[in-house]
Specification:
- The protein is mostly helical.
- The protein has a single domain, classed as MetI-like fold (Orthogonal Bundle).
- The protein is about 65% helix and about 0% strand.
- Helix 5 packs antiparallel against helix 6.
- The chain is elongated and about 75 Å long.
- Pfam families: BPD_transp_1, OppC_N.
- This is ABC transporter permease.
- It is found in: Cell membrane.
- InterPro entries: BP-dependent_transpt_permease (IPR050366), MetI-like (IPR000515), MetI-like_sf (IPR035906), OppC_N (IPR025966).
């Protein structure tokens, strides 16, 4: 008669450790199958997204930067908690150098320093971050709506409708984006008009992606069934087809936001984006590029923010792609 193994024996401990390691490496779907629980699609997406550590950290940092930019100096008639403005000048403290101290933690009088005429650079940088974020997220939203609509209509109706819409798309694609944006940027009267003009130029990539998805989905059985019972085309597109492309749309929107951050910075650096007396991160780099050797903090603060925001949005898009695409069953590292 076999003798049961001692629960505390090395064999049992090794077996238990191996089982634990195997379970940790299961994908979210496999873990849910083991638990025998029922979850909605939204809960599955949320669980997969939370498992992506890079996306969670990036989201937290992006929310922190956004909150800091809009609460510090205020927005519109809403006042902020920072007592200095981005327009007023004052006497330079410590030669204009940053007064920020990491240990012991202290902001000081001017944490990011002062520019060459005594403006508080923290307030200037927060103002620039505000404008860059507003333009980026506005363009991301509007270009997503335009690209999704054009791509869905072209993919569903095909024929001459698809030919006309895709030739228009090709026309926008063949012209270099920066050149086209520089031309239209000269006619922008403010950040909102600049955001609208950039939205008209940056929808082409998503339109092609959505068109390809719709061409595949329109041949599926649920679309045929909807057509058989007399459902109109608009309802089929927006209630049955587009919800199945939501992963592609959301990921493309996040990547568009990162691209627009860099595009707006490039335009402002060249003098064709946000115009003085307003400012943006790209305009700050352009304005103080000559002070790189003598006052490097005037260059590094906006430069690091542009880099950090673009990286965070890209990591966020990567996490959303893994969350919405069930084929991306990554195992734990």
């Amino acid at each position: 008669m076999p003798i049961p193994a001692d629960p505390g024996s090395p064999q049992q401990i090794h077996s238990s450790a191996a089982a634990t390691d195997l379970e940790e490496r299961y994908s979210v779907e496999k873990k849910l199958d083991l638990s025998q629980k029922s979850y909605s699609q939204g809960q599955l997406v949320r669980r997969r997204f939370i498992r992506h550590k890079g996306a969670i950290v990036s989201l937290a940092f992006l929310l922190f930067v956004t909150a800091m930019a809009f609460t510090s100096i205020g927005y519109g008639i809403i006042p902020g908690w920072w007592d200095k403005g981005f327009i007023l000048t004052s006497a330079q403290v410590n030669g204009g150098r940053p007064t920020l101290e990491l240990w012991p933690p202290s902001l000081g009088e001017h944490p990011f320093g002062q520019d060459t005429i005594g403006k508080d650079y923290f307030a200037l940088t927060m103002r620039g971050t505000q404008r860059s974020l507003i333009i980026a997220f506005t363009v991301g939203l509007l270009s997503t709506l335009i690209g999704t609509t054009i791509g869905a209509i072209a993919g569903f109706y095909r024929g001459w409708v698809e030919s006309v819409l895709m030739r228009i798309t090709d026309l926008f694609i063949v012209i270099p984006l920066l050149v086209l944006a520089a031309v239209v940027g000269q006619y922008a009267g403010g950040i909102w008009s600049l955001a609208v003009l950039l939205s008209v130029l940056t929808w082409t990539g998503l339109a092609r992606l959505v068109r390809g998805e719709v061409l595949s989905l329109r041949e599926r059985e649920f679309v045929t069934a909807a057509e058989a019972i007399g459902t109109d085309s608009g309802r089929i597109i927006f209630r049955h087809i587009l919800p199945n492309t939501i992963g592609t749309i959301i990921v493309s929107a996040t990547l568009a936001i990162a691209s627009v951050i860099l595009l707006e910075s490039s335009l402002s650096f060249l003098g064709w984006g946000v115009q003085p007396p307003d400012t943006s991160l790209g305009l700050l780099i352009s304005t103080y590029q000559n002070a790189f050797l003598t006052r490097p903090w005037l260059f590094w603060w906006p430069g690091m923010l542009i880099l950090a925001i673009a990286l965070c949005v890209n990591f966020l898009g990567d996490g959303l792609r893994d969350a919405f695409d069930p084929r991306q069953n990554r195992t734990a590292d």
